[in-house]
Amino acid sequence: MAVEPSTPGTVRPGGRTARVRAAVLRAAEDALVERGFSGLDLGDIAQRAEVGRTTVYRRWGSTTALVADLLADMAEQSLPRTDSGSLAGDLRANARLVRRTLADPRQGALFRAVIVAATCDPDAAEALRHFYRRRVEEWAPCVAAAVERGELPPDTDGFEVVRAVSAPLYYRMLTTAEPLDEAAADRAAEAAEAAARAGAYRRRDG
User: What is the pLDDT of residue 102?
Assistant: First the structure.
């Protein structure tokens, strides 16, 4: 789904271990943005983070494990879902958050690099799936709330609705050079809402 672009240099409390992890993950982000997944090297990341190579190799062991931890950290830092009181408001908030993330020069490049990694590395693919699973789980309750309010059919699949919001934005980022503006985000939210109201995302047994 989406994360709010992080502020460079921010470190969460928790002692030396947390500081080391934050420095290494920040260095991994830099390397992914600059070189992509194929250019990742644990020794280079250790040097960038000003951390001992042994520490990095012992804790992460591989670039794939490091990318997985980076995605886990990004999921932890993601903003909580909006509760606007309406399906339209909630889906629009989700779409705009996705757009802000993908349109951000750093975060957008980072997501593209991770997606490329996932196409050629099974462990990176699983880490990416886990990241999106967490984000969809965060936002799916807004669909359940809409069902309770009578806005949607009772058997609407919340996961499918939330995925439908972000899918057009990722597709546009990966396949065109068109800017990801707020209008595109709002269209994605409106389309997902209309389809959900029409019953397109009702669960089908069998």
Answer: 92
Q: Determine the pLDDT at residue 112.
A: 86
- Tokens 């997944």 locate to 37
Query: At 153, which helix (H) or strand (E)?
Result: none
Burial grade of 176 (CB within 10 A; 0-12, 13-18, 19 or more): exposed
Ramachandran area for residue 50 (φ above 0: left; ψ -120 to 50: alpha; else beta): left
CA distances from 65 to 37, 87, 134 (A): 12, 37, 18
Dig out the tokens for 135 from the structure: 């984000």
Predicted TM-score of the model (pTM): 0.80
Q: Which fold has domain 75-197?
A: Tetracycline Repressor; domain 2 (1.10.357)
Residue 25 has pLDDT above 60, yes or no: yes
Please state, in angstroms and rounded to a whole number, the distance separating the CA atoms of residues 1 and 139: 9
CATH number of 15-66: 1.10.10.60
Q: Are 114 and 32 in contact (CB under 8 A)?
A: yes
Torsion angles phi and psi, residue 51, rounded to 5: -125, 150
